[in-house]
Amino acid sequence: MKVGVFSILPNKEADPAIVARRAEELGFDSYWVPDHTILPVQFSDAYPGVRPGEPPPDYLWQMPDPLIALSRAAAVTSTIELGTGILLIPERNPLLAANMIASLDHFSDGRFLLGIGAGWNRPECEILGGDFDRRWGQTKDYILAMKALWTQEESEYHGKYADFPPVRCFPKPARRPHPPVLLGGFTAERVYQRIAEWGDGWLPVLASVEQFRIGVDKLKRAAEAAGRDYGELSKTVFGGKGQWRSPDDIRAFEAAGADQVTIWLPEDLRLEELLREMERLAAALL
After folding, report:
1. Residue among 208, 198, 195 nearest 235 (CA)
2. How confident is the model at residue 255 (pLDDT cuts 50, 70, 90)?
């Protein structure tokens, strides 16, 4: 059973180079960072990470670019996997994103995990070029275009949102055929269909082990319907704030079929305090 850490605010107080290196030394299997390129000053969309009526947290508008943050982590580590939790695909040009992702995977010797999402904030998505009402269709189109760029010597793609003639895009990812594409979500039935049809794994934020079991059953049915081998799909429980911090939590998810659980690192700790918290977590969970 793998255990990773998620740094919600990988800034200078939680420097990815220092935190990821220490996580690797302590025996954690993965290091994850989030994505919000910008956050509009005014918006009405409710952030799903807080209770109804609560304001969105300040860390949402302070996030460094995740691919650059993970590049910093990759330079000082050698074994720990490096993931996005999650990368907002409709908000990024797919050719630029494909090249950046392949470069990160190339230089990290195949350690990148591409956790993806389509976003929850309409103005953010639209400012950055996303089609919010059809953002999952756009996400699929972009991912299929990226797969062509990652796997073909001369790549071309003709879809609704991504459309380009034969091009050369190098370097190719070190991991073959490409970094695993991991999708979040639990409540929407189409989550499981998407994973089975064009994803490589499930990356949900959940409230209970029972929810995970329900999702596993749905994912198995979706894989069977799509003619996909369920066993080749990874299952990573993406821990929210304060979640899954005991050995019993980890064992329960392992028994339910999870491959990995990630632990949220507090955003309000100074670097020295954060490193001590990781040491405490490692002693308890690894």
Report:
1. 195
2. very high
Long-range own/partner contacts, residues 170-173 (CB < 8 A, 24 or more apart): 170/102, 171/102, 171/103, 171/106, 172/102, 172/106, 173/101, 173/102, 173/105, 173/106, 173/110, 173/112
Per the structure, the complete domain to which residue 167 belongs is given by 2-285
Q: Is the pTM of this model over 0.85?
A: yes
Angle between helices 190-198 and 135-151 (to 10 degrees): 10
- Number of folded domains in the chain? 1
- Give the model's pLDDT for residue 52: 81
Q: Categorize the per-residue pLDDT at 77 as very low, low, confident or very high, splitting at 50, 70 and 90.
A: very high
Q: What is the CATH number of the domain that holds 30?
A: 3.20.20.30
